[in-house]
């Protein structure tokens, strides 16, 4: 049996859109016996398949085409969202906020390729793949993967013997950052970008990569990362009491913003930098306090400090929480080995499916339905993200999606807005 590539792509996306958790579940949950699965997928793909494939067919197909075409499809989707200005509400001073973060991806107990990172745990050697992601921040808390760089043992080949795990991690992510930004700039050369990352990138190499990539940046500033510079920052804050803005949020939280401009820093490579640094302290009504600090290349003054901190620095957590944590724990199963050979292609399918699910969850159509049922959000209506995927699976299996929804002329023009409230 020959299957059209569009059909196989929708078949692969269904694995993640319906959160089936493993490739084998395609054979059971999307069996076309007595269901509408084949009819609905055919119309999505614009094909006329008589049978549905088995999960090994998908793995063979992805093994033949590789990961690059799937990554290119993701790039086309992001370009479309940017060109239609669907993500503009989340811009920071005309710049798109790009969240940079790394994560563990796959762990095996036997080596399956030459690029595996290795880690000893007692008598056991683990073989790992890690990933560095650039996630584009959109309205309503959307985090859309825009570039991916897999971290492998090429990054640790020159690490001295006995180097500790944290140093290895830093070496990997910083080297991968340069490759990631080269890939991102090749695909989006004109995009105005502000990188937002954790304290790992707050160093000479992190600043240099941003400069070479024609980007601004906001990196977390912690005392243990650059201790001498931190002490100087604290002293300069005391010497500049006029650089201070206070406000109280509707929830009664008092926020105090202070900043330093022209903070000098010379990195280990002898490169001289002039930085701005922001400190934000929150005092909640119950008396508890929190404090954050950031480096930034953006202009910071009384008019801009709050927006730089809140729309930039404070949003860094979304890369881990609404990005990796959601992909690992909501049914997408990021850390599951969907394939031992084509795992990169499955990762890109997962990223595309996650973007589609976010647009579905945060779009105005489900929000309108939720309000009609007396609920505020789609998640509140369905109970959880997993429940939403379950409803989608039930619809794909048992409901013949109306033919008119596949006819652009019949449907007419509609506009789906993102909830940025």
Overview of the structural elements:
It is a single chain. It is built from 15 helices and ten strands. It has 421 residues and is an alpha+beta fold. Strands 1, 2, 3, 4, 5, 6, 7, 8, 9 and 10 form a ten-stranded mixed sheet that branches. β5, α7 and β6 form a beta-alpha-beta unit. α1 (5-17) crosses α3 (37-45), α1 (5-17) crosses α11 and α6 runs parallel beside α7. It is globular. It starts with a helix and ends in a 10-residue tail after the last helix.
In short:
The chain is α+β, with helices and mostly antiparallel strands. It has 15 helices and ten strands.
Output the keywords.
single chain; 421 residues; alpha+beta; ten-stranded mixed β-sheet; 15 helices; 10 strands; globular
Our measurement of the CA-to-CA distance between the termini, rounded to an integer number of angstroms, reads: 49 Å
Helical amount among residues, as a percent range? 40-55%
Specify Rg, calculated over alpha carbons: 24 Å
| Tally of helical segments | 15
How does the helix and strand content classify structurally? alpha+beta
Order of helices and strands: HHHHHEEEEHEHEHEEEEHHHHHHH
Envelope shape: globular
Low-confidence stretches: none
- The overall pLDDT average reads 90
In terms of quaternary structure, the protein is single chain
Strand content: 15-25%
Please write out the topology.
Layout: H1 5-17, H2 25-29, H3 37-45, H4 55-65, H5 68-83, E1 96-108, E2 117-121, E3 124-137, E4 143-151, H6 165-187, E5 193-197, H7 204-212, E6 216-220, H8 227-239, E7 244-248, E8 254-266, E9 272-283, E10 289-296, H9 305-311, H10 317-329, H11 343-362, H12 364-372, H13 378-382, H14 385-398, H15 408-411
Parallel strand pairs: 1-5, 5-6
Antiparallel strand pairs: 1-3, 2-3, 3-4, 6-10, 7-8, 8-9, 9-10
Helix pairs in contact: 1-3, 1-11, 5-11, 6-7
């Amino acid at each position: 049996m020959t299957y059209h590539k569009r059909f196989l792509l929708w078949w692969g996306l269904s694995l993640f859109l319906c959160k089936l958790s493993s490739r084998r579940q395609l054979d059971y949950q999307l069996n076309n016996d007595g269901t509408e699965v084949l009819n609905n997928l055919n119309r999505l793909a614009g094909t006329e398949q008589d049978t549905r494939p088995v999960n090994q067919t998908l793995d063979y197909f992805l093994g033949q085409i590789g990961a690059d075409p799937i990554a290119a499809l993701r790039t086309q989707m992001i370009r479309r969202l940017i060109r239609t200005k669907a993500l503009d509400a989340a811009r920071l001073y005309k710049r798109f906020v790009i969240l940079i973060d790394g994560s563990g991806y796959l762990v095996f107990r036997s080596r399956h390729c030459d690029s595996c990172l290795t880690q000893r745990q007692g008598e056991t050697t683990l073989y790992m793949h890690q990933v560095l992601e650039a996630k584009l921040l959109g309205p309503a808390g959307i985090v859309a993967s825009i570039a991916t760089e897999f971290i492998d043992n090429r990054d640790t080949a020159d690490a001295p013997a006995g180097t500790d795990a944290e140093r290895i991690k830093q070496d990997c992510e910083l080297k991968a950052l340069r490759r990631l930004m080269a890939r991102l700039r090749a695909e989006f050369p004109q995009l105005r970008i502000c990188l937002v990352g954790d304290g790992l990138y707050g160093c000479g190499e992190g600043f240099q990569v941003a400069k070479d990539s024609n980007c601004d940046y906001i990196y977390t500033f912690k005392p243990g990362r650059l201790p001498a510079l931190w002490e100087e920052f604290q002293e300069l804050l005391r010497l500049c009491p006029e650089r201070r803005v206070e406000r109280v949020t509707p929830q009664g939280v008092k926020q105090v913003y202070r900043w330093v401009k022209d903070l000098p820093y010379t990195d280990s490579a002898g490169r001289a930098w002039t930085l701005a640094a922001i400190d934000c302290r929150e005092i909640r009504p119950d008396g508890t306090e929190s404090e954050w600090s950031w480096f930034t290349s953006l202009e910071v003054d009384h008019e801009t400090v709050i927006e730089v901190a809140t729309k930039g620095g404070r949003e860094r957590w979304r890369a881990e929480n609404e990005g990796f944590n959601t992909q690992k724990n909501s049914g997408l199963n990021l850390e599951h080995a969907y394939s031992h050979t084509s795992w990169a292609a499955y990762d890109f399918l997962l990223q595309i499916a996650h973007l589609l699910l976010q647009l579905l969850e945060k779009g105005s159509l489900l929000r309108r339905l939720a309000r009609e049922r007396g609920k505020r959000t789609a998640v509140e209506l369905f109970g959880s993200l997993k429940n939403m995927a379950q409803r989608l699976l039930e619809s794909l299996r048992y409901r013949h999606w109306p033919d008119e929804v596949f006819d652009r002329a019949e449907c007419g023009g509609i506009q789906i807005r993102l909830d940025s409230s």
